[in-house]
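Researcher: Re-running this chain for the archive, since the previous output was lost when a drive failed. Same request as before.
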Amino acid sequence: MDEITLTRRVLLVTAVGAAVLPACAGVKSREMPPPKPTGDGLIDLALTVNGEKKTLHIEPRVTLLDALRENLGLTGTKKGCDMGQCGACTVLIDGKRVNSCLQLAVQQEGRSITTIEGLARNGKLHAMQQAFIAHDAFQCGYCTPGQILSACALLQERKPADDDEIRERMSGNICRCGAYPNIVAAIKEAAS
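Model: Regenerated structure tokens:
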């Protein structure tokens, strides 16, 4: 048998594997048939985005963020850190806020995805979008779509008790411009 040299990489991989595998033991996966691969190594995928059925022909490893932006042209969802830390890529999946950069598109078949482009109805802005405008809750605007979608989900989860709870529950969305007081004011207005 070949001898394994103990390197930092081997140690980390072994430690992570030992920690993650027991945690996953009781987890059930969704019972969805896997997408069917085609002869070119791509898969055909049907997504419901902003209430519309969309069909994609993509690689299995494409993230939801890249599928939305590059394949469907929905560029309101922003690519920030690409590591799930900034919240710029936040979308709603079945009404829950999710960092789309951490999700594979193939995992979303059968779910309802809402992007910032899907919030307005019949030419009328969503109440949260109106509140963000009224309170000037954006500066450069890069984080705004993720902030708005996260704020919508926050209010669907439950009404916040105070400003501190809003800040805590919005902590996954970073605003480099520092428009936080205006964002909190916008969420409070939309909550009322």
